[in-house]
Amino acid sequence: MLTPVFLDNLPDALPPIQRGSELYRLQRSRELIDLLAQDSVEWQERDCPSCGAKGRAQHFTLTPLAFHRCLGCNSIHAARVPDQARLDGLRMATLSDGRSDPSVHYAQRSFEFASILNWLQIAAARYRDKALRVLDYRFASHAPGFALAAAEDAAVEGREWHHVPLQAGGEPFADLAEALARTGPDAVLLQAEIDRAADPGLLLARLREGLPSGALVFVSSSCADGLEYEILGPRSPSFIPLDRLNLFSIRGFRQLAQDTGFTCLESSTPGRLDAVILKSHFDQRASNDTPFWSGFFRDANRDRLQDLQVLLQRSLRSGVMRFVLQVP
Ligand SMILES: [Zn+2]
Asked: What are the structural domains, with CATH classification, of the chain?
C-alpha cells in the first residue's frame, strides 16, 4: 500500500479562531447535552466499530458521553450512539442555523478544497486513465463552498460531480444507495463524513454494494494515531464529540475497509496543523507537566515544527487520515 507524504509549508501560526467555528463547537456541545437529557432517545451500545474488538478498551473520556480507545487497534469511539436519523436531523438543524454564503465559505476554505481536489487528481491518475464521475456524499452540505470548487474542477479537469445532500429520516444511508444507482459514479468522496456515522461499517457496505469493480473511494477523517490526540486526548481542539463518534486509527480503518470487501490502495496522514496546535497549547501553559514535549514545543522554532510535521506525515502520525480504496 502506498503512503504518500504531502510536503508543503506550515502556516506561520494557528489561524485565528473564527467566531463562527467557536459558536459551532458550543452548539454541538449543547446538542449533545440535550440529547443525553432526553428520555426518548434509544442508545445503541457499541464494540469497536473499526476492528470489532469486544471489551478490549480503555477510557478516552468519561463525560458527558463516554469514549473508549480500543486496545486492539487504537481507534477511539463513542461507547454508545443514537440512531443515524436522529444524528442527521440534529446536524441538519445546526447547518441550516449557521449556513454561510457559499462564495464567502469558498474563499475561506479554498486551500482545503484545492488540497482535496489535488488528492483526487493525483491518486486517480495512478489507477484510472479517464476523467472520473465523482459522487460527493454530503460534504457540499457541510461545506457549501465545496460545490463551487467542484464546479471549477469540472470545468478545468472534465470531472463530473454529483453532490448528495445531507438529509434526515429513512433507512440509514438509503439516500446513498439510491444516488449510486441513479448516477453510476466511478469514484466516491467521503470527506469528514465517516467520523459521524453511528455504524461506519454499514456506510462502507452500502458503498461496496452500489459500486462496480474498479471504482475508487476517497475517504478522509480524523486520525486517532495523531500526535495531537496522543498528547492532548479529549482536550484536543479537534475533538467535537458529536462530529467524532469514530476516530479511526490507520490500522483500524484498514481492517474495517478490508472486512467490508475493499482493497486499500493508499493511506496517508496529510495533516498540517499538529505541530502548531501543540506549540500553541504548551505556550499557553505555565507548568512543565508533560515529559519531553513541554520543553520540546516551548523551545521550538519554525524549522523544528516543520521537521516534526514532515516526520508525523511520514510515520502516519498526523491528526488527519486519508485512504484510497478500490472495489476489487
Ligand atoms: Zn479496534
From this structure: 43-272+318-326 (3.40.50.150)
